[in-house]
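User: Can you predict the 3D structure for this chain?
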Amino acid sequence: MRLRTLPPCPFSPNCVSTQATDDGHAIAPIRYRKARAEAKEALKQAIRLLPRVTLVEEDESYLHYEFTSFLIRFVDDVEFVFDDATKMLHFRSASRTGYGDFGVNRKRMEEIRRLVGKTL
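Assistant: Here is the predicted structure, written as structure tokens:
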């Protein structure tokens, strides 16, 4: 199975990705130790704890969620790719509209990292 690549971040500072190479967009992937199916289920359980989130696409090694902001109803796309070869969970979180995000995407992904912690 070929590893899916995530779309690159736009020039704007409202996106983070484990596959980005520049400091403004780059964020570290999450290591997982369990089998991919178990790690994916643990991630899904953690994300269910977060508000205003909808799973929009899923396959063996990929998850795509939409997160909607509370007040203005902005939608952010959050994608995850499980890389079994390296046991790394790659992800991208990006705002669909606007330019800046006040660090919301990075904070969200660090919160997800904290929630899944040692469960993967």
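Strands lie at 15-17, 30-31, 53-59, 62-68, 75-83, 88-95. The chain has a mean pLDDT of 94.
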